[in-house]
């Protein structure tokens, strides 16, 4: 997509699981660096300010990365929820058509057939369940990225 000048990728709502995975790796690395640093209280007085400043710089970077990661995770959630919503709306429209046909026929006609049709529509419409478990959804997508799927299976929804 061609971007306007001055438009950061913060306005881009395209989900990018690979980017989220990379941010996670970077956060892990930063966390290890921060945790491996000698506590300021155990250092000589003359180097404490410099070490504290360095540690704060790393912590600030980690904070910014966490914010970016949350934004990326939210984009994945939004994508999944929109997809789930479309499936449900489509399923409701299909069910409406089946019910219109069923109600316009005599009671004994095709009851079994329309029940099977309804079951099939409901199964298809509720195949993707993200609302209420969006965090698990994002984690599943991330696991797929780690397993080698660059898009985390989002294109299969």
UniProtKB/TrEMBL annotation:
A single GO molecular function term of this UniProt record: DNA-binding transcription factor activity, RNA polymerase II-specific
Listed Basic and acidic residues bias regions: 1-10
Highest taxon, organism lineage: Eukaryota
Recorded GO CC terms: nucleus
Originating organism: Phlebotomus papatasi (Sandfly)
Protein's name in the database: Uncharacterized protein
Residues covered by region (Disordered): 1-21
InterPro entries: bZIP, bZIP_sf, CREBRF
Gene Ontology biological process terms from the UniProt entry: response to unfolded protein
């Amino acid at each position: 997509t061609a971007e306007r000048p001055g438009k950061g990728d913060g306005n881009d709502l395209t989900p990018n699981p690979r980017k989220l995975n990379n941010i996670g790796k970077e956060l892990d690395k930063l966390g290890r660096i921060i945790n491996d640093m000698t506590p300021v209280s155990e250092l000589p007085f003359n180097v404490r300010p410099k070490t504290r400043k360095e540690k704060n710089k790393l912590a600030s970077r980690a904070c910014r990365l966490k914010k970016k990661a949350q934004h990326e995770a939210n984009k994945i959630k939004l994508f999944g929820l929109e997809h789930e919503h479309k499936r449900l709306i489509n399923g409701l429209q299909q069910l409406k058509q089946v019910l219109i046909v069923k109600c316009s026929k005599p009671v004994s006609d095709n009851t079994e057939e329309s029940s099977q049709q309804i079951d099939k529509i409901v199964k298809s419409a509720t195949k993707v369940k993200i609302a209420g478990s969006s965090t698990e959804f994002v984690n599943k997508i991330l696991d797929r990225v780690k397993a080698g799927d660059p898009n985390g299976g989002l294109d299969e929804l």
